[in-house]
Fold this sequence. Notes:
By secondary structure, this protein is mainly beta. It is about 10% helix and about 30% strand. The protein has 2 helices and 6 strands. It has a 4-stranded antiparallel sheet with strand order 1-6-3-2. A two-stranded antiparallel sheet has the order 4-5. Bound molecules: iron/sulfur cluster (2 copies).
Amino acid sequence: MISPFANDKIIKFAGRGIIKMKKNIELEINKEFCKGCSFCIESCPKSCLEISGDLNSMGYHFPVVAKIEECTGCCACSYLCPDMAIDIYELVG
Ligand code: SF4
Ligand code: SF4
């Protein structure tokens, strides 16, 4: 899905929340939005995400990128996050 708000640098696919992944894909996780439900981890078809050993300010374990090279930018993690903690971007141009 391509956002109508795209500019010549970034296309915003989904969600909110920056962790560099594939060559032209960025995944941004706002750990302070996270409540540690792990839906994003379970939804990823490439097992890119894993739970962090660290806690956010609310005391929840948040996801981190474990396999940066495997992300396809499918947005499943972002769509499944009930707290809109994950944004995915494709860098273009
Ligand atoms: S965008 Fe898709 S492949 Fe990348 S971390 Fe999210 S669910 Fe996994
Ligand atoms: S789906 Fe959202 S709220 Fe749940 S663990 Fe992942 S980032 Fe946190």
